[in-house]
Amino acid sequence: MPDTKCKIRSRLVRLTFLAKTAALVISALAALSGCTVNPVTGESQFTIMTPAQEVALGEKNYQPYLQSQGGAYVVDPDLSVYVNRIGQKLVKVSDRPGLPYEFVVLNNDVPNAWALPGGKIAINRGLLLHLQDESQLAAVLGHEIVHAAARHGASQATRNVLLQAGAQVVGLATRDTAYGEYAATGASLGAAAWQARYGRDQELEADRFGMEYMARAGYDPAGATELQETFVKLAEGRQSGWLEGLFASHPPSQARVDANRVRAATLPGDKRNRAEFQRAIAQIKKDQPAYEKHQAAFKAAKNKDYPQALTLTEQAIKLQPREAHFWETKGHLLRLQGKKSAAATAYGRAISHNPEYFSPYLARGLVQKSLGKYETAEQDLVRSQQYLGTQTASYHLGELALRNNQRERAIEYFSAAAQGGGELGQAARQQLNTLGISPSSPE
After folding, report:
1. Hey, where are the domains in the chain?
2. 60, 140, 213, 308: which has the fewest Cβ within 10 Å?
3. Which residues contact 103 (CB under 8 A, 6 or more apart)?
4. Neighbour order of strands in the sheet with 113-116
5. pLDDT for the residue numbered 154
6. What is the pLDDT of residue 188?
7. Is 278 exposed, middle or buried (0-12, 13-18, 19+ CB in 10 A)?
8. Is the backbone of residue 62 left (phi > 0), alpha (psi -120 to 50) or beta?
9. Treating both helix axes as pointing N-terminal to C-terminal, what angle do 422-434 and 391-403 enclose, rounded to 10 degrees?
10. How far apart are CA 137 and CA 84, in angstroms?
């Protein structure tokens, strides 16, 4: 019994020491920077990121975000030109017009939009279909412009750094306790919940000042109220887990609708431009039946009904033969049915319709490798990496390098793949061990 008490006392002393250490770490990080003025609200805010670092962060992550979320929508390039024109009109009346803003339409069915630090802004094809006029589009873009102009991304990054520093020390403190695993999980959820609450405050700020930008540009601010009403309707009836709701990037609520309605009544502006907006989205509206066929094909494939999935995909292609995603899906389905050469041809069609998207290069490279066409496989896999680095491409390029007796290059590729988890990460670490290299464990 005395020994047990001694152990408990020892752990309490250790926890107290590490808790104080955590406070010192966070204080030290805070001392590296200071308060800055929010360019939109005029209020003080804390950040450890300079404006130049903020822009660099957005630039670094822009292409990976685009590539991993469906790539740019290219069937109708004029749509992105139109969206960028409306976005730039709002930028001119914003509080931070000097940022390198860029607006793009993503080829993604999900109704969503996002902004990266420094002004890189995307709106999904799926969201445009739920909008009725240019004022509602201006509401989306104005909202995202505020996120960039008000340095919300920089503030979020600062909190992430501080939370990670504290969480690492808390992890050390709990590692030796019987409940350490659960305490660490709790700390992670607590950190994420803090970020989510802060994010909701940022959302309200983006609503408010986004409406001001709309009014300055002459748009009817009621479009922002209607936008939130649309989000509420989209959310109705959906059964989502508490974690999903907690981390939602744009949580809709009747409270936001009401706040926007009150705010809109105090602002000028009456421009709606419905006809121009409807002309701009005419192609995606016309093609929506094709995308619905494509979505149905995914459901059939999930149920392993590959013949039906292929039939639906071919129907989608017939409706819109210039959509690269449809051809890529056809390639996947042919590959799953053992028709590798035909799959490679379908992937080639996908590439011809969108040559700046990583996924069909990756898929064709894997098929070519399985067919023994190693040179063309390497070319495709390297090209896929130029657009988006993936663990899958790194591992298979490592195997191809080994086959060509390129030991150093193989080590480089396997080391990159080993940083990820799962079966490929484990296989890459085994390859490195075979090559006499001690791989580092993934974070």
Report:
1. 45-279, 282-389
2. 60
3. 80, 83, 84, 86, 87, 88, 121, 122, 123, 141
4. 102-106, 120-124, 113-116
5. 63
6. 35
7. middle
8. alpha
9. 30
10. 11
**Alpha carbons 65 and 69: distance in angstroms, whole number:** 6
Cβ-based neighbour number of residue 436 at 10 Å: 8
Among 296, 239, 232, 284, smallest CA distance to 261 is for 232
Which residue is it, tokens 């700390």?
187
In angstroms, the CA 292 to CA 297 distance is 9
Which helix (H) or strand (E) segment is 104 a member of?
Answer: strand 102-106
Tell which residue, 340, 309, 314, has the closest CA to residue 326: 314
What Rg, from alpha-carbon coordinates, does the chain have? Answer: 25
Helices and strands, counts by H and E, the chain: 20, 5
Taking the C-alpha atoms of residue 422 and residue 212, their distance in angstroms, rounded to an integer, is: 47
For residue 372, the model assigns a pLDDT of: 98
Write out residues in the chain with pLDDT < 50, as ranges: 1-2, 4-22, 24-26, 28-32, 161-198, 239-247
Q: Which residue has the tokens 């705010």?
A: 263
Q: Across-strand partners of 106?
A: 72, 124
- Residue 40: the pLDDT is 75
Residue 45, beta-bridge partner list = 36
Tokens of 410: 């193989």
Token pair for 85: 């024109």
In sign, the C-alpha dihedral spanning 315, 316, 318, 321 is negative
Overall residue count recorded for the chain in this entry: 443
Structure tokens at 17: 């020491």
- 282-389, superfamily in CATH? Tetratricopeptide repeat domain (1.25.40.10)
